[in-house]
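Report of the visiting student (M.T.), summer placement. My assignment was to run the structure pipeline on a short list of targets and document each run. The first record concerns RRM domain-containing protein.
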Amino acid sequence: MERIVLSAQDRIVLPAKTFVTHDLGQETNLPHLAVQVTNPMHKSARLSISNIPASLKAKRLRKMCTDIGTIQNFQMFMRDGTLMAEVTYAQQEAADRFYQAYNRKMVDLSHLIIRYLL
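After the run finished, the structure tokens were exported:
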């Protein structure tokens, strides 16, 4: 069995019929798995926002982002039936402030989940 060690910068997609061995020694057949390894020490100006409630419109979310700092890119989209967004700030410090202000905060009865993207 081949063992792969991932670093904080790695982004991999495993092909179909991939078997992953858990720490408990159990093998799991995964039909398709995309893995993104993120290290909290490696921050960037690019954020992913997930678990967005349907009542939160793109205009309001964009305003929440611009209230924190200057944004370079904003995209809101549906993935697997879940509303998500990606935001790129001009400065990493603004992304840090948005993360601190909104990660796990309740907005319209839903906890937003913010993650740094590489």
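The chain has two helices and ten strands. Helices lie at 58-68, 92-102. I thank the supervising group for their guidance throughout the placement.
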